[in-house]
Amino acid sequence: MHEFIALAGIIGALAVGVVSPGPSFVLVARVAVSTARANGLAAALGMGLGGVAFASAALLGLQAVLLAVPALYVGLKVLGGLYLGYLGYRIFRGARQPLDADTSAPGQRTSVSSSFWLGLTTQVSNPKTAIVYASVFAAFLPGTFSLPFAVTLLCVIFVIESGWYAIVAVLLSSSQSRRAYLSYKAWVDRTAGFVMMGLGLKLITSAHQA
Fold this sequence. Notes:
Layout: H1 2-18, H2 23-34, H3 37-59, H4 62-68, H5 70-93, H6 112-124, H7 128-140, H8 147-172, H9 175-183, H10 185-209
Helix pairs in contact: 1-7, 1-8, 2-3, 2-6, 2-8, 2-10, 3-6, 3-7, 3-8, 5-10
């Protein structure tokens, strides 16, 4: 019974956190609207797997390691910030580049596998997510828990992470969303690029202040 209560608390906390706007949302939204639904769903799966990786690390005590070695945490923040900034620069730089001329078959220039890896690497580029998982686990996990509980928890986290971003991908990969994106592509890409670069800069700045 105590494991069920703990699982319910973790689900509630993470469900609220996952819908908060951030680099993951920006990335999945742009992939979905600029390529194809399959690409957006692949990126969503990558986000889910990245969440499982952070949750697994939290269960294994990553937070304790990062707190014991502050320089490691700072280094991860800087690397993650640089990666987000790089992604933002690429999006901004390609703002005026047209998509495939055949818009009835979007996404041919970007493979589904590359969208998956892009989602995964974007998710794991922010070490703050590991701290969020560790904090939630610290608040709700019982002192001892079974292996089936841990496996169930990781499966639920995958569903929460990938499920939310799959919803985003489906909604924004519709024909109406794509037409709107094509009409304002330059402005949308510039905005998305600025947001990604700003989030990367924020991550690097927070590392300097740590």
